[in-house]
Amino acid sequence: MEATIKPSTREDISEEAKWELNGLYLQDSLWHEDFNALEVAISGYNSFKGTLTQSVERIKACLEFDIDISRKLEKLYTYAHLRNDEDKTHTQNQSNFEKIVHLNILVAQASSYISSELMTIPEDRMNQFLQSQELDFHKLHLERILRYRDHTLSEKEEKIIASSLEISRAARDAFDILDNADLKYGTVADENGDKTEITQGNFQSMMQSHDRRVRKESFETFYSAYADHQHTYASLLASNIKKDIFYAREKNYASVREKAMFSENIPVEVYDNLITTVHENIAPLHKYFSLRKKILNVDQLHIYDTSVPLVKDVQWHVGYKDSVTKILDSLKPLGSDYTEILKKGLLEERWVDRYESKGKRSGAYSSGCYDSNPFILMNYREDNINSMYTLAHEAGHSMHSFLSRKTQAYPYADYTIFVAEVASTFNEVLLTKYLLSQDINQSMKIYLICREIDNIRGTLYRQTMFAEFEHQIYTTAESGQPMTLDSFKEIYKKLLERYFGKETILDDCLSLECLRIPHFYFSFYVYKYATGISAAYALAEMVSMGGKTELKDYLNFLKGGGSQYPIDLLKGAGVDMISPKPVRAALENFSTLVDQLETLTT
Which residue, among 363, 372, 415, has the nearest Cα to 519 in the 3D structure? Predict the structure, then answer.
């Protein structure tokens, strides 16, 4: 009888391979104690209500109270969401997570008057307040609040908006549960004939199988699950778009995109320049697909042929600890202080939840709070080089968080999403440089160059395609057009045709891909991957080729947290993202890599 390979249960995973959350809470009962105490403490917001116009002292006291509540809430939330992501089917963890989400709503409601009350202070009087030494520490925080003067409603309206946040998560939460817990992706026979259950975690490994039958059947089986639920997925995405439009309009923004970019003070031209620059440099991508078709010697290149390694004699099998060693060696240009901290975190202090298990959240991320270590969720696979790159990527996030929290005070420690992908991708770039610098044969060199090409393709070209899709669906919806399953598929198919060109066969089911991207539930997020990799390549080149000044500037960027707006932080490190130059340079690097691949394979 054929064996069926299934994901392990959490009990099967060793303790050293699980993250250590005792630094947050030793046991759930202590979490509940802090939860109950915070639930009572939020009534303290009432003591400041109606008094902020009186004096600098009242503003300062209110802000410090709000910061204290936020810090405690963040710690509670971090523990609850990490526990919930360990197993999406664990009802108690689900309950705790829902409780903290609800408490977050209550805090938002209780504090919702702060911004609107601050806005009632005349600008000249507020400017006088801002000159007071009492508010020196809070000045930047206040200035960021006051930027929203045109987008802040009355106290009553702000409270209603805050009260609605819990129900606003409905579509995203339903997508999350459907995609990670309820959806069954089916099974396929692997290269040895054993039946393997397809999961979010192993799907990409299936796409890298050298057995084309395995790739084709995995691809078709995987997408058949989405085809069976396509109307539900389309309805969830459409509902999420309507939610975003509602909040943007109620807050007096011209569009959802404007609202999303306003929060980080990112000029819209950054978004538009990205798409335009990619369009102008699409030819190397099409050349790569033609080259891949030739190397694979296939009559037709399908999507399931676009991830398989182009050399067959390179077997990748690297355990977690070996990956850590390689990553640390690759990051030596960042100095021993950086690598020693990271080594302890990845191996000794158990920042990482390493392996896939039944019910565990798919994918990977770095999380944590001001009062904890960074934590990394992985679904590490020893047979997939992408796992090592993912670990390096998330380690970049974690070290960014670690350094910014050690350097900045709580209100200014969190960096924005726009710069979040820079440090992570920077680490991936150094990892590739390191691996290519080793004594490797031509097959391994082809493998790694192809891997680097695919990384840029996936992060710069692909995420820009996603960004273009997102802009189009929101623009369409904001014009009053209904967003249906057919609408999503039609828009997405046209983009697939633009980005993949004539050499690639676009199977009909691929139009459903737009329904399975979780980042579409966090509006206008994906473009930051593309800008992030562009900035990362520029900075990695500077640090690798430069000296102490370039390294110091980069480390200061990591330590900067949220002490400046992201565009300014990157300028301080030496990269101007308002200009299209960093994106263009990254695409030129892609073209060079494709040319190198062509030389190595002819």
Answer: 363
| Domains of the chain, first to last | 10-168 (1.20.140.70)
Tokens 């679904």 locate to 379
Length of the chain measured in residues:
602
User: In this structure, which amino acid lies at residue 470?
Assistant: E
A 10 A CB-CB count for 512 gives 22
Per the residue annotation, which of 394, 421, 428, 550 is the catalytic one?
394
Residues linked to residue 504 through DSSP beta bridges, in sequence order: 301
Q: Can you tell me which residue has the tokens 């690598």?
A: 339
Residue 4: predicted pLDDT: 41
Residue 564 clears pLDDT 70, i.e. is over it: yes
Bridge partners (DSSP) listed for residue 187: 197
State the DSSP string of 53-99.
TT-HHHHHHHHHHHHHHHHHHHHHHHHHHHHHHH-TT-HHHHHHHHH
Mean pLDDT calculated for residue range 328-349: 96
* pLDDT tens, position by position, 396-433: 999 999 999 999 999 999 999 899 989 999 999 999 99
| Angstrom distances, CA of residue 371 to CA of 68, 73, 78, 403 | 12, 11, 10, 13
pLDDT at 2 over 70: no
Scanning 253-308, the segments in alpha helix (DSSP H) are 256-262, 268-280, 283-296
Which DSSP string corresponds to 111-172? HTHHHHHHHTS-HHHHHHHHTSGGGTTTHHHHHHHHTTGGG---HHHHHHHHHTHHHHTHHH
What would the mean pLDDT of 74-80 be, rounded to a whole number? 98
Alpha-carbon distance 330 to 435, whole Å? 8
The kind and range of the H/E element at 4 are strand 4-5
Q: State which amino acid sits at residue 477.
A: A
- Name the token pair of 455: 């990384």
Task: Return the half-sphere exposure (C-beta side, CA atoms, 13 A cut-off) of residue 407.
Answer: 17
Q: What is the pLDDT of residues 466-485, one digit of tens each?
A: 999 999 999 999 999 999 99
Predicted confidence (pLDDT) at residue 334 exceeds the cutoff of 60? yes
Say if residues 262 and 248 touch (Cβ distance below 8 Å): no
- Residue 394 annotated to the active site: yes
The mean of the pLDDT values for the chain is: 94
Average pLDDT of the residues in 113-140: 93
Provide the residue type at 116 as one letter: S
Alpha-carbon span 589 to 160, nearest angstrom: 49
Q: In whole angstroms, give the CA distance from residue 492 to residue 486.
A: 10
Spacing of C-alpha 249 from chain mean position: 26
Nearest-angstrom CA–CA distance, 427 and 405: 19
What is the spatial distance between Cα 214 and Cα 195, in angstroms, rounded to a whole number?
Answer: 11
> Of 115, 119, 110, which Cα lies nearest the Cα of 69?
110
The closest of 303, 307, 308, 305 to 511, measured between CA atoms, is 303
Three-state SS sequence of 536-581: HHHHHHHHHHCCHHHHHHHHHHHHCCCCCCHHHHHHHHCCCCCCCH
As separate numbers, helices (DSSP H) first and strands (DSSP E) second, the chain gives 26, 8
pLDDT at residue 198 is higher than 50 = yes
Residue 579 tokens read as 């200009």
Cα of 100 vs its chain's centroid, Å: 22
